[in-house]
TrEMBL record:
<dbReference type="GO" id="GO:0046872">
    <property type="term" value="F:metal ion binding"/>
</dbReference>
<dbReference type="Pfam" id="PF01265">
    <property type="entry name" value="Cyto_heme_lyase"/>
</dbReference>
<keyword id="KW-0349">Heme</keyword>
<keyword id="KW-0496">Mitochondrion</keyword>
<keyword id="KW-0479">Metal-binding</keyword>
<comment type="similarity">
    <text>Belongs to the cytochrome c-type heme lyase family.</text>
</comment>
<feature type="compositionally biased region" description="Polar residues">
    <location>
        <begin position="1"/>
        <end position="10"/>
    </location>
</feature>
<dbReference type="InterPro" id="IPR000511">
    <property type="entry name" value="Holocyt_c/c1_synthase"/>
</dbReference>
<dbReference type="GO" id="GO:0004408">
    <property type="term" value="F:holocytochrome-c synthase activity"/>
</dbReference>
<keyword id="KW-0456">Lyase</keyword>
<dbReference type="GO" id="GO:0005743">
    <property type="term" value="C:mitochondrial inner membrane"/>
</dbReference>
<keyword id="KW-0999">Mitochondrion inner membrane</keyword>
<keyword id="KW-0472">Membrane</keyword>
<protein>
    <recommendedName>
        <fullName>Holocytochrome c-type synthase</fullName>
        <ecNumber>4.4.1.17</ecNumber>
    </recommendedName>
</protein>
<feature type="region of interest" description="Disordered">
    <location>
        <begin position="1"/>
        <end position="21"/>
    </location>
</feature>
<comment type="function">
    <text>Lyase that catalyzes the covalent linking of the heme group to the cytochrome C apoprotein to produce the mature functional cytochrome.</text>
</comment>
<keyword id="KW-0408">Iron</keyword>
């Protein structure tokens, strides 16, 4: 997340949204902390900024954020399942960074359902590609 995330209402926003952020259970690499999820206001702002918020209602944001957070927690558990194959060399992997978000901040394309997670496997960086909607015909392409 940016150092100073936008928690202000968007122009034209009809009602105030919560700015409360929830800590995840996902250990943040290089720290003793865990990642913190965006607030409903931050999530709403991001959707609008990406041009994906035209049909999103403020009333739905609590549920959207809850679903987003749940998917990340489940995904982390799946990553840990794979990491168990390497438990002899690393018992406690951590998530260094979600690369898709970083690329977006640098002006790159923002994938909707693909996330590149870099896991710190006790000093070794391992990339996981999380693709919620995989299409065989687009495999290996930028799409």
């Amino acid at each position: 997340m940016p150092l100073a995330p936008n928690q202000q209402p968007c122009p034209g926003q009809r009602r105030l949204l919560s700015t409360e952020r929830i800590e995840s259970n996902i250990p943040k690499g290089g720290t003793s902390e865990t990642w913190v999820y965006p607030s409903p206001q931050m999530f709403f702002n991001a959707l609008r900024r990406k041009g994906k918020g035209d049909d999103v209602r403020e009333e739905d944001m609590e549920s959207v954020v809850r679903a987003h957070n749940t998917m990340n927690e489940v995904t982390w558990q799946r990553v840990l399942d794979w990491e168990q194959l390497h438990c002899d060399s690393c018992r406690y992997p951590t998530l260094l960074n979600p690369l898709a978000r970083l690329r977006g901040w640098l002006g790159g394309p923002l994938p909707f359902d693909r996330h590149d997670w870099v896991v710190d496997r006790c000093g070794r960086e391992v990339r996981y590609v999380i693709d919620f909607y995989y299409y065989d015909d687009k495999a290996g392409t930028p799409e």
